[in-house]
# Entry
Amino acid sequence: MEEQYAKIIETIGEDLSRPGLIDTPKRAAKAFKFLTEGYHQDLDEVVNDALFPSDSSEMVIVKDIELYSLCEHHLLPFVGVCHVAYIPDGQVLGLSKIARIVDMYARRLQIQENLATQIANTVSEITGAIGVAVIIEAKHMCMMMRGVEKQNSSMKTSAMVGVFRTNQPTRSEFLSLIQ
Ligand SMILES: [Zn+2]
# Structure
């Protein structure tokens, strides 16, 4: 990957031997590996048995989880927040694990729609919840820095599973709680 970055830098007409750039291919490769490390993570390791028995059937919401991902069309970042809610059915998941699941899928090449769906399906599968809701609000550098150059546009996507899909009052409660 280092060699590929060196080629890219040369292709744009830069001088790879100048002091500021001499280690850039190495640093860029290291950064890109970190930003895509979600491909090498294992769900079982991420969750690490942090499932606990619970009698609660009240909605659990984790709001404003910071989200950093890369758009698969331009390899440019999209940045925003993710809100996750679920209604447990006998067991709850450690709160930090939800954020780690978000990171595991965000650190891949993504489109925002798929990211929300992957997070919702995963939380649903591992908790056996009766419903899961995910909303992502993000700004896309590929829209802000190039293309249409719309600096203030943000994109909102959602994925609803179980009762959040079938029950309007449940969905409304969630939407009002994340306002
Ligand atoms: Zn893009």
About this structure: The longest strand covers residues 60-71. Residues 112-127 form the longest helix (16 residues). The helical segments are 2-11, 24-35, 43-47, 95-106, 112-127, 141-144, 163-166, 168-177.
